[in-house]
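Record type: monomer structure entry
Structure origin: computed from sequence
Chain ID: A
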Amino acid sequence: MRSRLAPGVWFLRAFSRDSWFRGSVLLMTFFIYTCYHMSRKPISVVKNRLHQNCSEIIRPTNDTHSLNDTTWCSWSPFDKDNYSELLGGVDDAFLVAYAIGMFISGIFGERLPLRYYLSAGMLLSGLFTSLFGLAYFWNIHMLWYFVLIQICNGLVQTTGWPSVVTCVGNWFGKGKRGLIMGVWNSHTSVGNILGSLIAGVWVNGHWGLSFIVPGAITAAMGIITFLFLIEYPEDVDCSPPQHNNGPDDDQDNSEDTGIGSYSNRENSLETAPKCSKEPCAEPTAISFLGALKIPGVIEFSLCLLFAKLVSYTFLYWLPLYIANVAHFTSKEAGDLSTLFDVGGIIGGITAGLISDYTNGRATTCCIMLILAAPMMFLYDYIGQNGIISSTVMLIICGALVNGPYALITTAVSADLGTHKSLKGNAKALSTVSAIIDGTGSVGAALGPLLAGLISPTGWNNVFYMLITADILACLLLCRLVYKEILAWKASLNRDTGSNLALTHP
């Protein structure tokens, strides 16, 4: 007598071959960008180690510094009174290079094989991240070395975002895009958490390993990407998803916002594409100006500038803020700062789910930005009163700050990159995502720089700057929110008219 099919085998057979390919691409791109963000995080954890309160540390008996030296335990050149400006300058070297390179990277991403482009970018990113940490073992104290390494790392890291968004866009259609990409975008927060935890292991000892270990992991992932990444469904004999909008989309708000409706008529992420061996015509790459003309690109790009300013200020300065205000050690501050990224995971998924249900990307972002402003104010004033209040406020702030950022860089970028005016040309995804994230990266560069300049005057002023940026991000979406409200009213009127027609034949 033969036994029934094993439950595990039944589970495996429940998914089609195409579903396994789509799942593997989603998982691989998740790990790829997790590594990118993991390699960015250590600098924020190590900052407090580069300049610390030496009076709280026992001086070793073989120390050669002068007894009057109050910065003997700090790492030159960050042992001066202007250490905040120097550390801000090191952050800005990375972020300015990243912002400039992002506008160029999208163009290369459309014209080069994504697998080669991503693999090279990850190998180089791992190299430059490790070189920053090797300064500890090589006893390097020259500011230009740290700045140069950060500039090079910022440039090569621009290979990541346009490529992974394009790769995911090549495989998936629009159905439930906000939810799925919200879950997928948690790679940002997962990378930040891993980067903080890994850096925290060595930050109080050989802090160079806080950079070398994430760098080595990133380089190893680059090799895996070269061996296994599948760029297009056609490469494994599967047809691409349909990105065109439904037949009734002219009645929705897509004309003004660049984002169509998400009805059941459209191709769902869960619907497996049918396999086909017929060759597809290679689409042409879109121009930079052509991408700017897509409705909604400029508004969302400028909104992301201020949203990313807030997010990256937390990314680079939160551990130092916690250490200075709550008087935690470098490791404790780094570990506690991961709660902000835990909130970011919750916020990204929530924003995607709500925006899918309401068909309102801009409105979802705007509401979360409105709520984030008072929460940041409360965190500054009561967030450090105890471990419980700090934990709760960090998670809430992380959700409200990173939710809109995550939604814009994923679902919104993919929506605009497959706008109906492009007639199904998914090649535009790389350029559109690069424009949006590149503009946001300008804010990411400004935020840590301003925090470094403002923090000596008091951390309260840094939070006022963040709240102001948050409000500006919200205001930039007003036109799109208005269009979405009009679309909802029109849809409600159509539904009401249909119901009246059915009840009064």
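Annotation 1: Residues 15-52+77-231+243-261+284-503 form a domain with the Growth Hormone; Chain: A; fold (CATH 1.20.1250.20).
Annotation 2: Residues 244-280 have pLDDT under 50 and may be disordered.
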